[in-house]
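Hi R.,

As promised on Friday, here is the backbone we talked about, encoded as structure tokens. Could you run it through your design pipeline when you get a chance and send me back a sequence?
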């Protein structure tokens, strides 16, 4: 409680300082109108640019008000129907999010990946570390749709495929997520991914199944079974935490009389590479024609638009 109060006081002080700086800048502009001065004008332009940058930074910080927004994230991508086209799309999305994390200097670690039969990935789970990794990435949860001329189709036909993106907050030790080992099945198996001489020759991969919920977590990219088990536990705790959060949100929606769709839900974003170039978020209507930049990790504008939409919905609900 005291820590939260200190944080709020610091936040208020930052906004008060921005307000004082803006008032001072307006006063200086009025003086400039009365007595034009080229040197003063250049200085005010620099001050205005700095003030705008600081304002945008603090405004973005307001979007991360959730209980777990400050935490690292676990990102999972799963191929939908569509065979090789879907597994290739999953691998494209994995690269996109790894590039996004690199732009933000968020360290990443691939915990598990299942290769497709011909190309791409059936699924992948990545740990994204860094402050507010979950706060940013929670805007990406949902089904992502790709429309393009398939490189795997000899007749060069246009194909539509889907992949599901799930984002979980990493559960720290201070979070009350207790595992009931009497109801958790532990399976070991040989790693299927690329690895060193040890990884693919022993049963080092670990799969944990929570028998109460049916939730599965696995890890196969570490060198030892012990390391993979530790990673799988981390993923399982994160999935159980996310389930608890979803149940809480669903209870609130039901109290408000809102209908909650089961299953994957509707797609959140379309990536069209043919017959035209367009990425459009169907929740916010934010769009861009620079598809190559988006697939190279330029996602902040999409994320920010969705986070701002979420803040707006919360405000209306209150």
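Update: got your reply. Pasting your designed sequence below so it's all in one thread:
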């Amino acid at each position: 409680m005291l820590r939260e109060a200190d944080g709020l006081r610091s936040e208020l002080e930052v906004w008060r300082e921005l307000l004082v700086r803006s008032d001072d800048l307006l006063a200086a502009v009025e003086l400039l109108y009365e007595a034009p001065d080229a040197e003063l004008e250049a200085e005010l332009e620099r001050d205005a640019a700095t003030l705008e940058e600081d304002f945008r930074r603090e405004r973005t910080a307001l979007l991360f008000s959730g209980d777990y927004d400050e935490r690292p994230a676990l990102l999972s991508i799963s191929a939908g129907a569509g065979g090789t086209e879907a597994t290739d799309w999953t691998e494209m999305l994995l690269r996109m999010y790894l590039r996004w994390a690199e732009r933000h200097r968020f360290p990443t670690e691939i915990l598990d990946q299942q290769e497709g039969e011909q190309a791409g990935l059936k699924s992948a789970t990545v740990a994204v570390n860094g402050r507010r990794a979950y706060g940013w990435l929670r805007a990406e949860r949902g089904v992502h749709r790709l429309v393009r001329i398939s490189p795997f189709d000899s007749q060069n036909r246009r194909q539509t495929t889907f992949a599901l993106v799930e984002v979980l907050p990493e559960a720290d030790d201070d979070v009350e997520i207790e595992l009931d080992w009497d109801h958790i099945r532990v399976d070991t198996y040989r790693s299927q991914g690329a690895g060193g001489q040890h990884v693919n020759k022993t049963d080092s991969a670990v799969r944990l199944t929570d028998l109460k919920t049916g939730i599965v977590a696995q890890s196969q990219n570490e060198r030892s079974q012990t390391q993979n088990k530790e990673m799988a536990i981390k993923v399982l705790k994160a999935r159980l935490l996310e389930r608890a959060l979803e149940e809480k949100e669903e209870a609130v929606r039901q109290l408000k009389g809102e209908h909650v769709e089961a299953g994957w839900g509707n797609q959140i974003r379309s990536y069209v590479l043919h017959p035209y170039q367009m990425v459009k978020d169907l929740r916010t209507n934010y769009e861009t024609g620079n598809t190559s930049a988006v697939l190279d990790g330029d996602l902040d504008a999409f994320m920010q638009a969705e986070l701002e939409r979420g803040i707006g919905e919360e405000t209306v609900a209150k």
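One thing I noticed while checking it: The chain has seven helices and eleven strands.

Thanks again,
M.
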